[in-house]
Amino acid sequence: MAKIVFVDDELDMLETVKKVFTEFGHEVYTAEEGREGLRLILEHEPDIAFVDVRLGGLKGMEVLRQAKAQKPHLKIVIFTGFNDSQVDADALKYGAIMCLHKPVGLQDLMNIIEKNTGG
Q1: Would 53 be classed as within a structural domain?
Q2: CB count, 10 Å around CB of 33?
Q3: For the whole model, what pTM was predicted?
Q4: Phi first, then psi: what are they for 2, rounded to 5°?
Q5: SS3 84
Q6: Which CATH number do you get for residue 38?
Q7: Is residue 55 situated within a structural domain?
């Protein structure tokens, strides 16, 4: 199964994804703010990470940039609650594999995980 990091300031979402994806056998790490998220990503080198754009402390786009600068092979998906084509373009420019617009369903996340990790 996959090793996954979720970084989002919505605690309810983090609790839900941790519970659901752990039940499916995945190893899941969560963080509510950017610096902790970056630390988890660099420490655990997940198969895939999901990072919200708007975070306390280090912003999501900076988490993406720093993580990819240190570990270019990482697969990182950016989340955003805003329909902003510039955010999408920046995320892809900085190395995200895709940019998702909230709300995102659990089945959509599962499909992305399976497609990008084989698990």
Answers
A1: no
A2: 17
A3: 0.96
A4: -90, 150
A5: coil
A6: 3.40.50.2300
A7: no
**Number of structural domains in the chain:** 1
Strand order in the sheet with 3-7: 27-31, 3-7, 48-52, 76-80, 98-101
Identify residue 106 by its one-letter amino acid code. L
Residue 94 placed within a domain: yes
11 is in which domain, residue-wise?
3-47+60-117
The per-residue pLDDT for range 90-107, each reduced to its tens digit, is 999 999 999 999 999 999
Q: What is the pLDDT of residues 55-91, one digit of tens each?
A: 989 999 999 999 999 999 999 999 998 888 899 999 9
Q: Which two tokens stand for residue 81?
A: 């609650």
41, 67 Cβ separation under 8 angstroms: yes
CA dihedral 29, 48, 64, 90 (to 10 degrees): -140
End-to-end, the C-alpha distance of the chain in Å comes to: 5
